[in-house]
Write a sequence for this structure.
C-alpha cells in the first residue's frame, strides 16, 4: 500500500491531477491492517488524443468481507452519491461477492465511481437481475450477451462480474451497468474465444478486424495453441449507448495449454 500511494502521488505530480477524491476514501480502503488480496491498483488509459487518464481500484474486503457493503455505502456517501449508496450496497450484498471500488482520476470528461461484485456460481439471469437497478437497461440484452460469449452457465469455474457506474450525484440509481464475462474459462482454446467475441461484435455492427489486429500485435502463436489470451469480454450498458471490450492477456509468464473439457458450459444459441 505504501508503494501504491507513492506511485499514485508521483503520477499526480507529473501529470497534474489532484487526489482530493482519493483522499476522501483512502483510509476506508487502505487500513493499517488490510485483510484481503491487494492494497491499491493503478490503471492508465491511453488515448489517441490528449494525455493519459488514470483509475485506481481498492479491494472491498480490505476491512473484512463482512464490512464490504458498509464500506461501499460510506465511500459513495463521502464522494457525494448519498442518494444511491443504499441501493448499490444492498444490490451488491444480495447478488454476489464484493470485489472492487474504483475511482477515475485526471482529466476525464465525467468522473466516475464504480463498484464491482461477482456472481458466485450464477448464470446470465443473475447478471440481468443486477442490471435492473439501472434505469433504461433491458435485462434481456445483458442475458443474451452472456449466453453469446460463454453459454448458459452456471459459471462455476470463474464467475460473472457485475459493475455499477455512478457519475451523477443527484441520482438515486447508478447511471450504467457492465457485465464482465470470463470467456477464458468456458472455451477449449482462444480460437473459440475469438469466435465468441466476433459473434458478439457482429450482432452489434462492429468490425472484427480491429480485434484481429490487436491479437496479431500481442502474439504470434496460433489461437488454438493456448487458452487465456482473450481473458474477458465485457459489455457496457447505459440508457444511451453500449460498448464492447475485449481484454487481452500479455502472456508474459506462460501460455496456458488448451483444455480438453470446458467446465459447466452450455454453448449459446
Amino acid at each position: 500500500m505504501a508503494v501504491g500511494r507513492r506511485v499514485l502521488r508521483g503520477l499526480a505530480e507529473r501529470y497534474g491531477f489532484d487526489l482530493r477524491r482519493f483522499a476522501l476514501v483512502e483510509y476506508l480502503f487502505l487500513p493499517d491492517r488490510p485483510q484481503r488480496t491487494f492494497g491499491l491498483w493503478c490503471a492508465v488509459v491511453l488515448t489517441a488524443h490528449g494525455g493519459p487518464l488514470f483509475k485506481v481500484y481498492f479491494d472491498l474486503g480490505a476491512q473484512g468481507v463482512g464490512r464490504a457493503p458498509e464500506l461501499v455505502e460510506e465511500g459513495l456517501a463521502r464522494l457525494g452519491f448519498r442518494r444511491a449508496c443504499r441501493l448499490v450496497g444492498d444490490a451488491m450484498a444480495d447478488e454476489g461477492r464484493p470485489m472492487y471500488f474504483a475511482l477515475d482520476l485526471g482529466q476525464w470528461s465525467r468522473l466516475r465511481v464504480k463498484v464491482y461484485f461477482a456472481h458466485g456460481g450464477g448464470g446470465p439471469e443473475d447478471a440481468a437481475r443486477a442490471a435492473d437497478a439501472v434505469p433504461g437497461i433491458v435485462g434481456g440484452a445483458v442475458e443474451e450477451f452472456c449466453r453469446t460469449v460463454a453459454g448458459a452457465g452456471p459459471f462455476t469455474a470463474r464467475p460473472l462480474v457485475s459493475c455499477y457506474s455512478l457519475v451523477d450525484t443527484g441520482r438515486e440509481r447508478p447511471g450504467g451497468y457492465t457485465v464482465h464475462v470470463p470467456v477464458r474459462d468456458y472455451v477449449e482454446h482462444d480460437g473459440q474465444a475469438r469466435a465468441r467475441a466476433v459473434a458478439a461484435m457482429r450482432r452489434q455492427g462492429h468490425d472484427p478486424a480491429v480485434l484481429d489486429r490487436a491479437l496479431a500485435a500481442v502474439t504470434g502463436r496460433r489461437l488454438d495453441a493456448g487458452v487465456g489470451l482473450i481473458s474477458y469480454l465485457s459489455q457496457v450498458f447505459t440508457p444511451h449507448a453500449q460498448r464492447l471490450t475485449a481484454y487481452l492477456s500479455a502472456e508474459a509468464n506462460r501460455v496456458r495449454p488448451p483444455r480438453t473439457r470446458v467446465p459447466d458450459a452450455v454453448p449459446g444459441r
